[in-house]
Specification:
The complex is a heterodimer.
Chain A: E1 4-7, E2 10-13, E3 19-25, E4 33-38, E5 45-49, E6 53-54, E7 62-67, E8 70-75, E9 85-90, E10 97-98, E11 102-106
Parallel strand pairs in A: 2-11
Antiparallel strand pairs in A: 1-3, 3-8, 4-5, 4-9, 5-6, 7-8, 9-10, 9-11
Chain B: E1 3-7, E2 10-12, E3 18-25, E4 34-39, E5 45-51, E6 58-60, E7 68-73, E8 78-83, E9 92-100, E10 109-113, E11 117-121
Parallel strand pairs in B: 2-11
Antiparallel strand pairs in B: 1-3, 3-8, 4-5, 4-9, 5-6, 7-8, 9-10, 9-11
The chains are: A mainly beta, B mainly beta.
Chain lengths: 107, 123
Amino acid sequence: EIVLTQSPATLSLSPGERATLSCRASQSLRGSLAWYQQKPGQAPRLLVYDASNRATAIPARFSGGGSGTDFTLTISSLEPEDFAVYYCQQRSDWPLTFGGGTKVEIK
Amino acid sequence: EVHLVESGGGLVKPGESLRLSCAASGFTFNNYDMNWVRQAPGKGLEWVSSITSKSDYKMYTDAVKGRFTVSRDNAENSLYLQMDSLRAEDTAIYYCARILLGNGFGSGYYDYWGQGTLVTVSS
C-alpha cells in the first residue's frame, strides 16, 4: 500500500499569506496525485489532479507541483474561504489512498 | 449540472446489513467509473470500492473485501453498495464519487461527490 504523509498537520496563517502544503509518498507516483479541499459538513472538492492541473473552476491562487514522491499544494494568498482541511490522494496503485490531511486554520 | 445523492444509511447493529444507493443525474452515467469513499467521524478519507462504467471490473479495500459488494444499474443511473456483516469500524459517512480520468480499471480522481450518507454500527 502506498502511504501518503502530509505535513504539517496544522498550518496557522492569516488571510493574504502564502500556504505551502506537503504530501510525501512512500513510493513514486509518477505524478498521479490529486489535492482536495474539505470544509466542515461538506464533501471534498477536487482542486488539482495529475499533480499540477487545476480542476474546473478552481481559482488560480491554487497551484500544485512535484513529482515522484514529493508534492506540494500552494495557495498564493489565502482568502477567508480557504481555511479548511486539505487531502492528497494517489491513483498510481491499488488500494487508492489518501493522506491524513492538513488543516489550514486562521492565525 | 452533475448531482450525486446517496441514501440508505442509518443505525444498525454489528452483523447486520445495509444497502446504500447513489442516484446520479446531470451526466451520462454509463460513461463513468464510480467509487465509494468513506470518512469515519472526525477522521480522514478512505477509499472503499470502485466499479467501472460497464461493471466489468470491481475493486475493494481489504477491510471490506468479502463483506461489501458494489454494483450499478446504468438504466437507472444508480450506484449501490451492499454492506453485510457490518462492524463498528464501518461507522462512517459514505460518499459516492465520480471518477475523472478513469484508466479502465475504476481508478482515478474524484471530480464530483455526493453529500454522503451516515452509517452507524452500534449495539
